[in-house]
Every structure is written in C-alpha cells, then in structure tokens.
Amino acid sequence: MDGTMIKVGMADANICHSPDVITTLGLGSCVGVALYDKTTKIAGLVHVMLPDSTKVRQNQNKAKFADTGIDMLIDMMRKEGANRSLLTAKIAGGAQMFAFGSNNDMLRVGQRNVEAVKAKLKELGIRILAEETGENYGRTVEFYPETGDFLIKSVGREQKII
User: Which spans of this chain does the record mark as coiled coil (predicted)?
Assistant: First the structure.
C-alpha cells in the first residue's frame, strides 16, 4: 500500500482520495457506511452508532446517526469533487453483540442501524453494491478507493473483500 491510512473514529466521518485508504475499527452494533465515486476515486466513511437523531436530545454529532451522518458525508465528498449522482455504497457492521432472547428494540441496535442506513441510502437513490451485516461479531473495515474494495476483518474469521 502506497497511501496513508485515514482513520475514522466512532461516531465520526472522513474522506480520502486514492491511493489513501480509509478505515474504522470496532464496528459492533455500529454500521460503517462507505460511499464511493469511482470516477474521481474519492471515498468517504461514516461510523454510524444510532439509527435516528430525532430520538435523542443531545444530537449535535451528526456522524453518530444514520439519518444525519450519511448526508454529512455526502456534503464532505462533494466539497472534494465527488459527483453526488455517481455515489455507490458498501456497508458493514450492525451486529447483535449480546445474546438476548428478546425483540426489545433497545437491544436490537445493530439491526435497527442497518435498517436505518438502508432506508437513508434508498431515499437518496444511492445503490448498495455489497454488505456484510448482522451476525454476532465485531468488524474492522478498510476501504480502498483505488479499487473499490471494502476489506472486512474480524477476530477468528477469514478476511473478506466485498
């Protein structure tokens, strides 16, 4: 790898240009949403913690929520020259990290995050090219704008490229 590894923290967003790579660590119930314009090779990544900013009082951090974080990321990418109409998405995370035999919505944060991300992307007309979501394990992801590869790493599992 010739580029720099750009890190995205929890409830954070950032962008990168090829040959740089963008990564976020420790996606449990959180969802990593990678947006990509393959013509400019500009990528963005948001680490979504919660599905809906309207359900939380202290919601100044736009990156924390699916409904506001994706919009924020698109704005960041457009300022760098990405074409909004060419954006595609790859998503990972949204795990059920705790084994509860319950359908309590508060315990299904991962599933609700995935549903919220998919609904927001659909609303914006952004096609999801690939996903690795659900299950019961955490993930670290790396997005490579040069190739469009989204590398998924999980403890005790094979690395996967989607």
Answer: none
